[in-house]
Amino acid sequence: MEKILHGMMDTMNSVKPPRMTALRELHEAETGGPFSILIGTILSARTKDENTTKVIKILFSKYKNAKALANARVKDVEKIIKSIGFYHVKSKRIIEVAKIIDSKYKGIVPDDFNKLVELPGVGRKTANCVLVYAFEKPAIPVDVHVHRISNRLGLVETKTPEETEQELMKKISKKYWIEINDTFVMYGQNICKPISPMCKVCKIKKSCKFYKTMNAS
Predict the structure, then answer these.
(1) In which residue ranges of the chain is CATH 1.10.1670.10 found?
(2) Separation between Cα atoms, residue 28 and residue 63, nearest integer Å
(3) What is the spatial distance between Cα 105 and Cα 50, in angstroms, rounded to a whole number?
(4) Which of 79, 105, 134, 174 is the most buried (most CB within 10 A)?
(5) Selection from 152, 213, 141, 153 nearest residue 180 by Cα
(6) Which of 64, 97, 58 is nearest to 78 (CA)?
(7) Angle, to 10 degrees, between the axis of helix 49-62 and the axis of helix 34-44?
(8) Which fold has domain 22-135?
């Protein structure tokens, strides 16, 4: 796994240094506490990272913690996040989550997977993102990029992100888990795209099942 992760970063840096993912930017930001990462992950679903990053900055400049967002009006939140996908649903969802974090957990996001997935709209991927980006706890959040690239490389042969997560956890040493989502997502956005992947520049193509299949004589 170390060679794969390094090969991905080398490839991206040789083409064009990639911008940080929205969740990595949140992690690096001074205001990037667990609550902003939880809400940011919910908002990021089916939304481009650039849009997510802009919206989160505006949202948290107005609502700085769970209590503030819990008391927000849906219409006011909708105005702020209307540039992202499914903003009607997401506005209600993040206010609902904020209310639970404020009342049940006294404003502190739990660092426990089982407690996180009990929150409305929080599935395995979102919970794992919070563990990785907010608490730096080993987990493998699997989105479309991680799922696609893991299958293309031949690391797994799976049909769903949930299956991919389980297989990767079995096969990959825990010391690499925190790096996987961030690196694979950047690679999926910039190099190993869903359509027309940039195989020519890829420095790990010799280890890639997809590349070997596509170039078999």
Answers:
(1) 2-18+140-214
(2) 19
(3) 30
(4) 134
(5) 141
(6) 58
(7) 140
(8) Endonuclease III; domain 1 (1.10.340)
pLDDT at 68 over 90: yes
Q: Tell me the fold of 2-18+140-214.
A: Endonuclease Iii, domain 2 (1.10.1670)
CA distance 102 to 119: 12
pLDDT at 30: 54
Instruction: Provide DSSP, 74-143.
Output: HHHHHHHHTTSTTHHHHHHHHHHHHHHHHHHSTT-----HHHHTTSTT--HHHHHHIIIIIH--------
Confidence band for 175, pLDDT divided at 50, 70 and 90: very high
3-state SS assignment for residue 45 = coil
User: Which residues make up the CATH 1.10.340.30 domain(s) of the chain?
Assistant: 22-135
Of the candidates 201, 121, 195, the one whose C-alpha atom is nearest the C-alpha of residue 152 is 195
Q: What long-range pairs does 74-81 form, CB within 8 A, spacing at least 24?
A: 80/55, 81/43, 81/55
Give the 3-state secondary structure of residue 177.
helix
pLDDT value for 45: 80
